[in-house]
Amino acid sequence: MKMAISVLQVANRSHRRLMNSPPQTNTTDGAGSQKKSSSSAMPIMVSILVVVIVGALIYCIYCWRWRRRNAVRRAQIENLGPISSSDLSVIDLSTIEAATDNFSEDKKLGEGGFGPVYRAVLRGGQEVAVKRLSTKSRQGNVEFKNEVQLIAKLQHRNLVRLLGCCVERDEKLLIYEYLPNRSLDAFLFDPSRRSQLDWRRRYVIVVGVARGLLYLHEDSMLRVIHRDLKASNVLLDNRMNPKISDFGMAKIFEGEDHEVNTGKVVGTYGYVAPEYAMQGTFSVKSDVFSFGVLLLEILSGERNGGSHVQRHGQTLLRHAWELWDDDRASEFVDPSLGDCYPTNEASRCFHVGLLCVQENPEDRPTISSVLVMLKSEQMPLPPPNEPPSFTRLRTTPDSRKSSAARSDSPTMHSLNQVTVTSIDPR
């Protein structure tokens, strides 16, 4: 508005100069010249006034939109609600800026749909991973609120620990424990690093992830459905123990509800259960399906996604089913393991994986049954039914690239993001 007023003042001063200017003495028709001068000044004044009015309107609209955006941001922060210090530490922005060298590129571990992730060292010498909400993130505010209110209440050795958060100025930051070995997919799908995952480590990862899911589904104070379990969301500590991460899309079940129908499907292609992808219905059995996919990936060392379809003409699940049907299960095991693995244990894992990815959710076992099946050699296993068939991927306009597609980068640590996916059945 100040700019518009200044322009109007300039215009008024110009008008006064034109009106107060003395008549020319060297003309024979002074009155006629003055009349012509006045008449020629009118269009100029009208033009100036039009420009000023239009500029003022544009400036007012800009100010209104700017204030509205700020009001929306303030409302998003206020909607987070009070954060109890007993649940989660609130860390000053200045402390995080100092620990990350003001979010230096040298400290950057990677970037996902939520935003970039930085390695930081706090004043006491503790290493942490700082996840910074990007201003371009569409779902970041929802994810931030979900993780702050959810993860702080969940404590388990197979879940990543959220140490603190920061909501200051326009910044929203999540501070996690730092896991130096990054995510599982950085090892599992990298030919040069896959050999570091011998059978014993793979089995420990499978059981650890199952225990983490059991805690979420049955043992925690909240009944939680993760909805985005995948290799890139399983982080590894310095002893290669697994920790489930990224609870931005997790949902809490209330009362005795067993399933929920939602109009918006989130997840990652290759891991999403068919009933969720096609009908929007998710339950604990949806997480079991994702776990089954992850188990088969750990066993084979291959990703269940578009790259596998391009190479083999079918999904990893269909390939596993054909080998099962032909009684050639041993061919499914990752060749990099050689003969250095117990065949009975691998065969049982293969069988359990196929039970988890059955098309009908009622046929799938619960995660507690999965743990018993994995640990007990005496427990008889029922024969699995055929897994679902997916023909092509169609992403929605709101979808973002999966972190799994970028996690082969050596600078990646853990990127927590979501790929919104629609899947067409055959």
From TrEMBL:
SUPFAM superfamilies: Protein kinase-like (PK-like). GO terms for cellular component: plasma membrane. It comes from the Eukaryota. It catalyses: L-threonyl-[protein] + ATP = O-phospho-L-threonyl-[protein] + ADP + H(+); L-seryl-[protein] + ATP = O-phospho-L-seryl-[protein] + ADP + H(+). The chain crosses the membrane at residues 40-64. The active site is at D228. Pfam families: PK_Tyr_Ser-Thr (PF07714). The keyword RNA-binding does not apply. It is an enzyme of class 2 (transferase). Residues 411-426 have a biased composition (Polar residues). Gene3D superfamilies: Phosphorylase Kinase, domain 1 (3.30.200.20), Transferase(Phosphotransferase) domain 1 (1.10.510.10). Its EC number is 2.7.11.1. PROSITE patterns: PROTEIN_KINASE_DOM, PROTEIN_KINASE_ST. InterPro entries: Kinase-like_dom_sf (IPR011009), Prot_kinase_dom (IPR000719), Ser-Thr/Tyr_kinase_cat_dom (IPR001245), Ser/Thr_kinase_AS (IPR008271). GO terms for molecular function: ATP binding; metal ion binding; protein serine/threonine kinase activity. Residues 103-379 form the Protein kinase domain. GO terms for biological process: immune response; signal transduction. Residues 16-38, 378-426 are annotated as: Disordered. Keywords: ATP-binding, Disulfide bond, Glycoprotein, Kinase, Magnesium, Membrane, Metal-binding, Nucleotide-binding, Serine/threonine-protein kinase, Signal, Transferase, Transmembrane, Transmembrane helix. Mg(2+) binds at N233, D246. This is non-specific serine/threonine protein kinase. It comes from Musa acuminata subsp. malaccensis.
